[in-house]
Amino acid sequence: MTGRFAxxxxxYAPASPQPHAGSMPRTLFDTPFVNVLxxxxxxxxxxxxxxxxxxxxxxxxxxxVLIAAPHTSNWDLPYTLMVAFVLRLNVHWMGxxxxxxxxxxxxxxxxxxxxxDRGRSTSQVSASATALKEAAGPLQLVVxxxxxxxxxxxxxTGFYYIALEAGVPIVLAYMDYGRKVAGLGPVFxxxxxxxxxxxxxxxxxxxxxxxxxxxxTVG
Length: 219
Fold this sequence. Notes:
The chain has one domain. The protein is built from six helices and eight strands, in the order E-H-E-E-H-E-H-E-H-E-H-E-E-H. By secondary structure, the protein is of the alpha/beta class.
């Protein structure tokens, strides 16, 4: 059986938070006043640069894994953060642990960053899944499936197993530099058949252009 795209309001039931669930550190997305200013600034910047933001996050996907694709440039992060503001998301993102070295660590975490040691991928999947399951409120974990901004034909499956272990859906987010359109695509419910499900997910991204088109392929 392959995964399925859930229609809005179809009733996908996300995992319930634990009775004494912890919460992620405060980020700029839930910092009062700051988030209002940054939302307005993000909307203005994107609009002036010709970008259109589409889609919305269904209530049943308030806790989810967001695929961030394509990932071909360092510009993807600031654009992703701006799109998240416009869509009123509460995103966290996984970044190389070296980005969190002193003195930038606190700033990166305030931006929603979660440090990842790529040499310990299994534990990071479990830790990310636990954070999603225990979140006291909405939390969207942004994961670039390529795992690197360099060219690769093979998508990493970490995002898939995080969603599967956490019992949350996958939302297909995108940033199409060719058309200057960014936003949220369909909600995908993983089944555990990783090969079939990955093929379905990749089909959605065919034709979407990264900032460096030569660096992105769905394989």
